[in-house]
Amino acid sequence: MAHPRQSALQDFRFNQRVLQDAINGVRIPDYLGLELVQLCVVAGIRRNAGFGHELRGLTPRFTRALNAQAIMYSRDIPDMNDPEEFPYCIWYPSTPDRDTCRKLIVQYPWMKYQVGRVCAVANYDDLYKELDILPEVGIAEEARENGSEAIYSAIFQQPVKYAVFNDYSNSLILENPPISAMNGNTCVTTLLESKQSFKRPRAKSILKSDMNGFESRLFDIREDMSVDVKRSEPRSVDQSVVLPLLYSPLPADLPTVDKDMLILSAAYHGNIDRYMRLRHPQKIKGELACLIRGIYHDPLFAKFWSLQPTADIYDWRIRRAINARFIMTNDLSRITPTTPVDELPYLIWFPQPAYHGVYEELARLRPEMKLQAARACIVANYQRSFEKIDPPHDSALVQEAQESPNPFFLKHLRAKEAQGDTTGEDHGSEYWKYFTIKHALKPSTLTILGELNASSIATTQTWIYDGVEAEMSNVEVSICTPKEVKQSGISDVMFRYPSTE
Asked: Do 269 and 463 contact (CB within 8 A), yes or no?
């Protein structure tokens, strides 16, 4: 038999007041088909005792929220039979009392780790001891964040710790959980206090957040994407803790930090161990550009990525960067007659040109790569190979030839133009092809940044690594600048040293 509100799962006509009422636990919208509406309803259920009971059984998401509500507020243990009915988070925005927790694990013994997390949030030291559970890193990080010192110390001092919680997928690994350090993979309660305000969905927008009316987040343990009537700022990060980790070995257990900057730096420099330890399952803003930069600059990082399952190399631009790095390392094994065109790189001469014969063979193997092979020859001053490739006149090649100290290349291209042998391309949206090796070898920035965070690592879609660029020199200069210079208020690195005159 269909649920009485099943007919409400249909298109929604946006009404801001209706969504505000849902979040505040005033009333349930008539239309529940839109994802944004369901998130607002879940937020209302979890924050307001007694709200939304008529939705039980309509969707697993609503039922889980109602079961969490019952545990947190009414202190009643709901009947839960289907695995999809069990809530993941039962500790925010409220924590159940000790008696409720004890009743919960009597009825559902497999929820004792969730009760352990409740203990970490609510500082139930005595109840935690009763649970007799493995030292779990998520509980430890939650305890550290909420000042539950006894629980934190009990776990931290253990020689081996385990990851039972997976806050990315809202799942628990109860059988043979993996050994793990504290790697900042826990959605602690302070993160949940960072709310986002919803907005009107725009079906025609190219941005997914505008289309949906909300921004997807790495963590969603409450299943409401932290939507709220008003936005609240995320927690402030103590940069004095984060920054030394950029240039120091990582400790066995990470302190409480926003590790986005560490992830981007590890990707940018091609540091395999740090990147694999720190990364999230989903890419963060700027990570793709940093990965591509790291692959271009480190052949071993490229080799690592080339061995990953195809599903992990989710973006064709990563595969193209791998191919570029292999070419520059004198390996054409990945360039075959069947290599997709969008995986054929353009930039194949920076940061390191290949052996001249590689470019000759590349142009023969894939004629559509003749232009970039010829351009690599201009940069590396491989005149004989350039003659063998014999490229047509091309406006981007001309730009590079004008920077070369060898006049032969420009003379050759102009002769081709006079003969009518020209591509006739202006490269349109790929205007970054007009930037030359001179731009790639630009000096470090002179500016000292006052505050450093993940957004300090500039990532753009403009140039150098086949249209994707990452730039971290501003961070590096700022970190290397002596403290006394920063304290003096001087913002230009040129003044860090006294004059010799």
From this structure: no
Q: What is the DSSP string of 123-186?
A: T-HHHHHHH----BHHHHHHHHHHT-HHHHHHHHTSS--B--EETTTTEE--SSPPB----S--
Neighbouring-strand partners of residue 469: 460
Long-range Cβ contacts of 47-55 (<8 Å, 24+ apart): 47/23, 47/93, 48/24, 49/73, 49/74, 50/25, 50/74, 51/25, 52/25, 52/28, 54/4, 54/5, 54/28, 55/5, 55/28
pLDDT digits (tens, 9 = 90+) for 398-457: 999 999 999 999 999 999 999 999 998 888 778 889 999 998 887 777 777 777 777 888
Q: Helix, strand, or coil here: 302?
A: helix
For residue 110, CA distances in Å to 21, 90, 106, 115, 122 come to 35, 14, 9, 10, 20
Alpha carbon 197 to chain centroid distance?
Answer: 21
Work out whether the CA dihedral 250, 252, 256, 260 comes out positive or negative: positive
d(CA 14, CA 105): 42
Domain stops at, among 182, 205, 228: 228
Comparing C-alpha atoms, which of 179, 172, 224 is closest to residue 198? 224
User: Residues 10, 34: contact at Cβ < 8 Å?
Assistant: no
- The answer to whether residues 78 and 220 belong to one domain is yes
136 vs 186: CA distance, rounded Å: 11
Are 144 and 189 in contact by the 8 Å Cβ rule? The answer is no
End-to-end CA distance of the chain: 90
CA atoms within 13 A on the CB side of 244: 6
Distance CA 246, CA 259 (A): 10
Residue 453 maps to a domain = no
Q: In 3-state terms, what secondary structure has residue 469?
A: strand
Lookup: tokens for 239 = 């940069």
Structure confidence by residue, pLDDT tens digits, 223-261 = 999 999 999 876 666 667 888 999 999 999 999 888 999
Identify any residues that bridge with 492 across adjacent strands, giving them in sequence order.
Answer: 447
Tell how strand 165-166 and strand 171-172 pair up: antiparallel
CB 397 within 8 A of CB 405: no
Structure tokens at 444: 């470090």
pTM higher than 0.85 = yes
The enclosing H or E element of 228 equals: strand 227-228
Residue with tokens 């291209």: 413
Number of domains within the chain: 2
- Which structure tokens are listed for 187? 């959605």
Q: Are residues 314 and 416 in the same domain?
A: yes
Q: Quote the percentage of the chain above a pLDDT of 90.
A: 72
In the listed set 409, 440, 471, which residue is the last one of a domain according to the structure? 440
